[in-house]
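Sharing a chain and its predicted structure for anyone who wants a worked example. Both blocks are below, sequence first, tokens second.
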Amino acid sequence: MILQASISSIKRNTHILICKQLDKIQRLINEKMWSVHHIIATDIFKEDRKEVVDKAWRNTVFKPCLDIVERFLKNDDHNITKMNAFIIINNQFNKKKVVFIMVATGTGKYRLSVDLATHFRGEIINSDKIQVYKGLEIVTNKITHTEKQGVRHYMLGEIEPDSNFTAKDFGLKSIDYIEFFLKTQCVPIIVGGSNSFIEKLVEDPVFMFKHKYDSCFIWIDVEQSVLNHRVDTRVDELVNARLVEEVLQIFIPDANYTKGIRWTIGFLEMAKYLRVEKNIDRDDESKKMILQASISSIKHNTRLLICNQLDKIQRLINEKMWLLHHIIAIDVFKEDRKEVIDKAWRNTFLQPCLDIVERFLKNDDHNITKMNTFIINNKFNKKKVVFIMRATGTGKSRLSVDFVTHFRAEIINSNKMQMYKGLEIITNKITHAEKQGVQHYLLGEIEPNSNFTAEDFCLKSSDYIENFLKTQCVPIIVGG
């Protein structure tokens, strides 16, 4: 009984370790903006029979990984994109196509949707839960007539401002529009920051969306510091565009502020200002201070909204296993000058999105992989290093050995326990047979009673990497 309890503890603690490993990978993606090729091994580990696992490994994991590394080593990304592969299993060639643009506030979603619509003969459905209402064009920052470029936008300013338009209402109307667009051979493009509306449409079994439609999700991501700057600039522009006057037109002190268009950032803060402002008699300085405080609140609350939007997207990836094309717009929004933004938009942003949608519409993924795109900087003059980041029990050692036999590479172990000598079974070190003659560095090298730190690992790894590169070998760093 005691032995069984110990074995159960090992299993439980290993489960906890795996969760921590996955959390760390997510943190590196979210906080450090790492661009990670995310392979979801859907069926490989469901079988116990070796021949079945081997076949699935070769066909649906190893080949996409080889393609990724080969493109990386050849700089075969035109200095624009990295491709992130996801394994998919459903035959979706017979499904109708729908494109989603999922973004945080302030990342150019409507410009992208219009560009895609004009290129692919698309129709746009707005999924922003506030912009569905009529009125408050400035406060809700609706796309302007000029920006639409003649492309019609559905569910944009359609709903009465005092209504309570729910996610279910959105789903019902969206299905009607989607079917109408498809009958006219148009591509439905759903765009907006309210991911709860999109989740309801896709996940609610009432709509049978996954059964009927094949989805292409594009997630536009921008560094938080850049987003914050854009929020501040945009709010100031809206104020200069007479935001306060627009709020004043429909301001009713005792109105219901928990539903409809009044329940929006910008209106709530300005309504608070208007309530106080009317009680201040000719004190212009006090009014300015209160107004400035309201403007600051709009900026602060918009930043919180962005964080919530990004959290929802991450939840859809982690919990619902949504496969998203993740576009990290590194340089597009760093400049304020329009001509610089326009050039960056065309050269490093729009074209990858066009490629993604074109491949999606043509079923040009061979029913095996979807490509996830990241915008990157010029790295042609840098030395190449490959990292395999995986949770315990997902075949990382096997993949690294397969790479070495294909690319003339050397392996550095980054598992902090497997670096120590001894306890081969407990630490689950790769066996001599599994190595297939490939040497593994920092595997069983460190004295078991030593305190080998992350800094020590960096120093030794750097030495190994430089030695490998001198011999024209690819350094592969692998571990949990």
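Comments welcome. The radius of gyration is 26 Å.
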